[in-house]
Design a protein that fits this description.
Length: 465
């Protein structure tokens, strides 16, 4: 039994202001002296970036599809103790409280996560076009599934003190406390583009906006009451996840048995902001040394690079900057062609193509990328059709797609990285002719805590290199 004060921030529907309130609570509680661990239900990369800025520690994801229900509590506990013990954890939900997999009866919904974590729920309710009716919505949310405990509400986009009082009176009638009421303020909203919110790492004003948001939350939300809600959560019947134990179960020795190990160059900067915190933790536990580099500005790979991890992000937005860095593109091409083990997810896949929307890229893949009119979004059951850098033939993993680009092969196609529900995706190749695949490029995002064998195989290839 592990004690951890915690709560889930949810809403009746998308667009109510969950990210604003959850991130603001994290920042305000931190300013009040609490160590806060921030988490996001679902696969989203962008919200955890704001959480990290608010808490001063990695933002983390909890996703039933990507790592299974059994790892929800262990990963929450791991995040709450890494890099230092937290006083409480705040989990931001996704979509509406009960919205999950289609035809799945709420599977993988925010309510599902809250139930598994035995965490009280704070509902963010947009009251900009309603008053007493908001209480009827909350009352329905509270009784729809009796396993879910709605412990309070934060009213968002309140028009006036009279408006707030009217809604609060109705909430009192149904027995749900109002923890705060936030006025309308477009000045704290994050801008959006083709894949949702603009990541915090791309906005120079993010820190200043977050400071303003924290001040607003502290002034208009009862932080002491919020902390009491978190403290009402019972101890969790779980142990914290351990990257060392996960790798040991996958058959790879821990870092203590391998020493400092080789460098894995990890793409970062504004163009590559999508990766899960546990990815680098697993690499460190495997004895590798992840070193982040910015492909838009740095002329060379980190010294001693023996592996490449090119995660997700927005190469289509920063195509000009990436194209202009010819020295790094040449270094990457040479590294991939010489057999340096390389994992490329989504943005990394695009970056390794010959070009993206006409802008020259690395050219390690004989393919071109381009923007498309339709968003590709969804979870997939992935199968390795043959041995790859990350999987043995027949291995299965869960992953997700999230992109508005497409890639077309322009030459002799390598084998697919995965079959996504039977559809070939990406490239698995042996560019150096070593007799084994050293390049794995795909649109599929995976959470390596849910498939530690992939991390173990990649780390073993890096050590062998």
């Amino acid at each position: 039994m592990t004690p951890l004060p915690r709560l889930v921030v949810a809403a009746p529907a998308s667009g109510a202001g969950k990210t604003t309130v959850a991130t603001g609570l994290m920042a305000a509680l931190r300013a009040a002296g609490y160590e806060v661990s921030g988490h996001k239900a679902g696969p989203d990369y962008i919200d955890p970036g704001y959480h990290a800025l608010a808490t001063g520690r990695p933002g983390r994801n909890l996703d039933v599809h990507l790592h299974g229900e059994e790892l929800l509590a262990p990963l929450l506990l791991h995040g709450a103790r890494t890099p230092r013990p937290a006083d409480l954890a705040v989990v931001e939900g996704m979509m509406g409280l009960y919205d999950g997999r289609l035809a799945g009866r709420g599977f993988a919904s925010t309510a599902h996560v809250a139930t598994v974590l035995d965490a009280p729920v704070v509902l963010v309710v947009d009251v900009s076009h309603t008053s007493r009716s908001a209480a009827a919505v909350v009352a329905g949310m509270a009784v729809f599934d009796r396993r879910v405990r709605v412990a309070g509400v934060v009213l968002n986009r309140v028009g006036s003190d009279r408006h707030a009082a009217e809604v609060a009176s109705a909430m009192e009638e149904i027995g749900v406390p109002v923890l705060g009421a936030l006025r309308r303020d477009d000045g704290i909203a994050a801008p959006s583009r083709h894949l949702g919110l603009v990541p915090a790492q791309e906005r120079a004003e993010s820190a200043a906006v977050l400071d303003r948001l924290a001040e607003r939350i502290a002034a208009q939300v009862d932080l002491a009451a919020v902390v009491e809600v978190a403290r009402s959560a019972p101890p969790l019947r779980a142990r914290a996840w351990s990257p060392e134990e996960a790798l040991a179960a996958a058959g790879l020795p821990s870092a203590s048995e391998q020493g400092d190990g080789p460098v894995v160059a990890v793409a970062g900067g504004r163009a590559f902001t999508f990766r899960y915190a546990e990815t680098e933790e697993l690499l460190r536990a495997a004895g590798c040394r992840p070193v982040v580099f910015d492909p838009t500005s740095e002329p060379a790979l980190p010294d001693g690079t023996a592996g490449l991890y090119l995660g997700g992000g927005f190469p289509e937005v920063y195509a000009a900057e990436l194209a202009q860095n010819t020295a790094l593109r040449a270094a990457l091409l040479e590294a991939v062609r010489s057999g340096v083990p390389t994992v490329a997810e989504c943005a990394g896949l695009l970056y390794l193509c010959r070009e993206v929307d006409g802008a020259p890229m690395v050219g390690a893949l004989d393919a071109v990328g381009a923007m498309t009119p339709k968003l590709a979004l969804g979870y997939h059951a992935a199968l390795a059709p043959e041995e790859t850098l990350l999987a043995e033939a027949g291995d299965r993993v869960s992953g997700h797609e999230f992109h508005r680009t497409g890639v077309a092969s322009t030459g002799e196609r390598a084998g697919p990285a995965w079959l996504l529900d039977g559809r070939p995706d990406g490239f698995s190749a042996d560019p150096a002719g070593l007799g084994r695949p050293t390049l794995h490029a795909s649109y599929l995002h995976t959470h390596w805590a849910g498939c530690p064998r992939a991390a173990a195989r990649f780390a073993a290839a890096v050590h062998a290199r």
